[in-house]
Amino acid sequence: MPPDVPLTRDRILAAAEDVIRRFGPSKATVVDVARTLGVSHTAVYKHVSSKAELRDLVVGQWVEATMPPLRAIVAQPGPAPQRLRKLVDALIAVKRRRAADDSELFTAYRALAADAKSVVAAHVDEMINLVATVIGSGVKDGTFRTVDPVAMGRAVLVATSKFHHPAHAAEWGDPAIDAAFNDVWQLLMDGLCPG
Amino acid sequence: MPPDVPLTRDRILAAAEDVIRRFGPSKATVVDVARTLGVSHTAVYKHVSSKAELRDLVVGQWVEATMPPLRAIVAQPGPAPQRLRKLVDALIAVKRRRAADDSELFTAYRALAADAKSVVAAHVDEMINLVATVIGSGVKDGTFRTVDPVAMGRAVLVATSKFHHPAHAAEWGDPAIDAAFNDVWQLLMDGLCPG
């Protein structure tokens, strides 16, 4: 690295992503990232305190990149059932796109995520809250029954796991998967909407 | 093997299960099974035509062992919602028990199942039909809405994947998993039962 370019956390994370892409998840270490940047590992340690923190940051960045469009859907007005469908469709689309576009990188991040449990838990909590916000607005205006938005938000995400949970990525190429999703969605909407 | 004990398909499958248990899924071959039985591979080939057939039989036997209690629940009389819950509870219990009792063997069979797609598909079809039978009886006596039993049977199984699909086995130790299941189940029953 030329001495006039300051080392920042963002540059470290960009280098870490590059290392993971080129050499796999086991190379997401401070030493390997320092080597890629042409700096000492001491210089990297000034910004990232440990290998565990580096992995948390890397997984956090990977997950965060998917979130702005999902938050935007929740922030928009409109009937709750349609917004809920749009939100879950967008979640499914971003996961499938990542798995299809670069399956090796997708697998690498899955391996890293297994070691970044608190980051993943925070992501799941935010997803539950987004779904709960939409369900809550539907409960308020009567398009949904009087349910607990957080409990039912979690239930909707769990019940659609097959379509967005990375553990099911191998099934996403199945030509029958969209029909299966439509059946699940109908059942969930029958459960949420007043009879 | 003493010459007076006839070689049967059942003995071959028992030996194959023993080989998998001791040496892992990659050893589920005709040659390894023949060695365990102390017979020639030609003798085994008289009963099993290929390595692929051997694996299909082994996976089929592993899956079949779970089915009699599930079929018995469907055959019993009683209100459809309770029978449906009993059926899905039993499915979840048998998968969790297998994953907990011998996680190495569970993982071995998961690897084998990936190569025995037609056997797994037949198992999934039977599970869908069992759930559809219960839903159909509930539609008939009015405890469930007028839904397509097969489509909604598939939807119920898909929506409960987190709790019985082997891809989620790592999550089954989560102390919150039963609460999560209860929320999903409530949502599905709200969807199936008349408002």
From TrEMBL, chains A, B:
Residues 29-48 bind DNA. One of its GO terms (molecular function) is DNA-binding transcription factor activity. Pfam families: TetR_C_27, TetR_N. Keywords: DNA-binding, Transcription, Transcription regulation. Residues 6-66 form the HTH tetR-type domain. Gene3D superfamilies: Tetracycline Repressor, domain 2. InterPro entries: DNA-bd_HTH_TetR-type_CS (IPR023772), Homeodomain-like_sf (IPR009057), HTH-type_TetR-like_transc_reg (IPR050109), HTH_TetR (IPR001647), Tet_transcr_reg_TetR-rel_C_sf (IPR036271), TetR_C_27 (IPR041478). SUPFAM superfamilies: Homeodomain-like (SSF46689), Tetracyclin repressor-like, C-terminal domain (SSF48498). This is Transcriptional regulator. The lineage of its organism: Bacteria, Pseudomonadati, Planctomycetota, Planctomycetia, Isosphaerales.
